[in-house]
Amino acid sequence: QAPFRVNYDADASKAIDVENLVAAHRAQRAEGVLARLARPDREYHIARIKKSLSITSANIERDCGKTIPLEIDWSSYSDEELVLTNYCPDSMDTARDICRRDTASHKTFLRDVQRIQCSNGKTSTMLVKDGVLRLTQPPATGWRGREAFEVLSKELALTDTVVRDADGRVLRFSPDTTTKVIPMYLGDGKTMRRLARDKRMANTEAWAPIRGTALRHTPEGWVTKCLDREISFLPVDDKTRMAVLNDATYIDEPLWKRREFALARDDRGNYYYVDSYSDEFGGQNFRVFRGPRGNVRQTTLTDIVDDSGGMIFATKEGKLRLVLGNGGETDVEETAAWIEGKKRIKLVMLPLYTNGKLIYTGLGAYDGETFGTICD
Predict the structure, then answer these.
(1) Cβ contacts of 209-218, under 8 Å, gap ≥ 24
(2) Pairing state of beta strands 270-277 and 287-292?
(3) Cα–Cα distances in Å, from 227 out to 26, 211, 374?
(4) I need a surface site. Which of 173, 211, 316, 323 has the fewest CB within 10 A?
(5) pTM of the predicted structure, to 2 decimals
(6) Maximum Cα–Cα distance for the chain, whole Å?
(7) In whole angstroms, what is the distance from residue 197 CA to residue 204 CA?
(8) Angle CA(124)–CA(107)–CA(92) in degrees, nearest 5?
(9) Considering only CA atoms, which of 211, 200, 165, 202 is closest in space to residue 186?
């Protein structure tokens, strides 16, 4: 548009009846005339956005092959907010990119989204629930292009990778690098069970008896190392990926629910081992094992004392006393002792991380157990 020019005319300015002009202004302000003139034309702005919305709807129908109702909660916007640029149609248009991504994404979107709603909010959020994709965003900002595509892809779990090893085991996970722990599933592609993990693990790492098992990306696929052997997972074809993402049965409880808690040994080669539920399952339910390597046996636990002086696990055979560190928060020397009546045997505390192989395959505490991990 051409610039708007303002010129000053001294003679015309002198001819203005200032008193009448000020009086008219005050009267218009008192009668609300100025307020009405300054008020945005709500109907005009809604009509303008609806026109944009109809174009977005036609584009989604063309690329997704289905009419998906698009709704805006006009009541959530004030008159002033409607004047600002509204990104609802642009955010909704992300559906087209999802439908064009691949067959599995297209099918997942049409299954999970039957309606798209947009409303005003202080922050930008995106949630799919009960068949409705709900977008919330400030009126002057909002989801843009690639950002909206990535957020919606994560919400629909379309960023998940589906790969398979030489034994036919299928693994589903997300290579996302955020701090959020995203579930990993392992199975035959028809029944998938969540792998045990904890909040300290990266999103390409799952729990294994030896140590956390991290997946490493290669040009061909993904590789993980289990002791002296590597397991390769290669991408599946689109039809298989679609079936795993949309048709498989998912079990959200990991097969293995326990974790190592403490390990000690006396000078005669007897081991004293304590395990518990993992953090996900409450971290209690302690068990105490005692015996030589390869033949430790679970004792009958009768009582537990846990205070600032340490922990005492009382069993029918004796008492195991432990003083454990506090994650580096306090400078505590870790000690252990086995007490039978008046007899006290000093034990050597062994680090858990470097003794994973001993704990899970050498002690005998878990003989016959199935852990349900990538390394099984």
Answers:
(1) 209/356, 209/357, 209/359, 209/360, 209/361, 209/366, 209/371, 209/373, 209/375, 210/356, 210/357, 210/360, 210/375, 211/353, 211/356, 213/373, 213/374, 213/375, 215/173, 215/175, 217/175
(2) antiparallel
(3) 86, 9, 12
(4) 316
(5) 0.61
(6) 115
(7) 10
(8) 30
(9) 165
Q: What is the dihedral of CA 96, 98, 100, 103, to 10 degrees?
A: -140
- What gap in Å lies between CA 184 and CA 96, rounded to an integer? 28
With vertex at residue 352, the alpha carbon angle to CA 348 and CA 354, rounded to the nearest 5 degrees, is: 100
End-to-end CA distance of the chain, in Å? 70
Is the CB of residue 245 less than 8 Å from the CB of residue 227?
Answer: no
Write the CA distances from 123 to 126, 135, 142, 155, integer angstroms. Answer: 10, 10, 8, 17
Q: Which of 197, 325, 190, 303 is nearest to 247 (CA)?
A: 190
40 by DSSP, 3-state: which? coil
Residues in the chain: 376
If one counts every other C-beta atom within 10 angstroms of the C-beta of residue 85, the result is 10
**Beta-bridge mates of residue 292:** 270
Q: What is the pLDDT of residues 62-92, one digit of tens each?
A: 999 999 999 999 888 887 777 665 778 888 8
Q: What are phi and psi of 273, to 5 degrees?
A: -130, 135
